[in-house]
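Notes to self, 3-oxoacyl-[acyl-carrier-protein] synthase-1:
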Amino acid sequence: MPSRIPPLAITAYTATSALGRGRHAHVEALRGRRSGLRANDFTTTPLACAIGRVDGLEASPLPTEWAAHDSRNNRLAWLGLGADAFLDAAREAIARHGAGRVALLAGTSTASIGSTEAAFRSLEDGRFPAALAAPVLHTPHSLGLFLQEALGTRGPCSTIATACSSSAKIFAQAERLIRLGIVDAAILAGVDTLCGSVLFGFNALELVSPDACRPFDVARRGISIGEAAGFVLLEREGAGAPRLLGYGESSDAHHMSTPHPHGLGARLALADAFARAGIDAREVDYVNLHGTATVKNDEVEAAVLADMFPPTTRASSTKGWTGHTLGAAGILEAVISLLAIEHGFVPGTLNTEVAEPACSAQLALANEERAVRVALSNSFGFGGNNCTLAFGCAA
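result:
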């Protein structure tokens, strides 16, 4: 088992999703049980499903100096950076530590593939049109390249693309870089936007629900896809800041799209998170579950929850509010876990009426007002790429 690690301070954090821009918008929507999901109005080819869409991106091009990076994904990143004064906090950290001592870690599963789709749809004599020809738009590292230029970091810059665990795993990478003395701070970014290949790809796998998703409901019918941008600033110290207590990662590689039937990877990730945080399951007040509302994922995660946690633990999936934001899900749900700690409430599991029997004792259907001192966030991606994050109150 891994050893306990020193906690890290989360000195700034924010999220933008279908619920709105910034922490306040998310708290208001969660407390008011107002979902961001709506009928699909994104694809020109009809697809009956619910989506979590961020409005206004089509009419909000990037500033002129970064026009070569202009894509829906980078527009959402820029919009998200401005919420909760995160951009100011990030630049202050860069000035304080030095540009070479701040890492920039991006988690995304599709990057700016929407621009690549658009380029192929509008070929001119077999070539991409000039407006979509910039090479930085057609690389999985497009998000990191844009943010590095916009923020001015000069430390390590990497992209993690491990499907739905992408922007959870960047917390683990950041902790290692800081603990090893390679950097003094890390800016974490998780951004994924809607695009045709994702919506129709998941639909081809028969995983998309025709209506708003119902995580852990016995009558669940699949996922609702959303988009989001989340940002976190990690430093060694920060007075009054919540803490990253630990993390656990695993790669069970059981199947390309189906979880291990006994949740082997999920169990390993949870156990390692407990070890690094120096806690056990009885000390966890809230678990933000991966909870995609697919039949197998929820069945396996429900069994793991029931086996590894006491009945008094509170747990929920918040994808009924935001949709499954894919590579951004890890950081978005980390932000929601931090909001649960900050505001002292457990968000329920929206749209769910009859819970999967295995986890019915722990699963919160309605919102609950209660102190949350330790919260976990699960992110379990395709291919068995798993990550659990542990967060705690300010020291």
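- The mean pLDDT is 95.
- The chain has one domain: 8-392.
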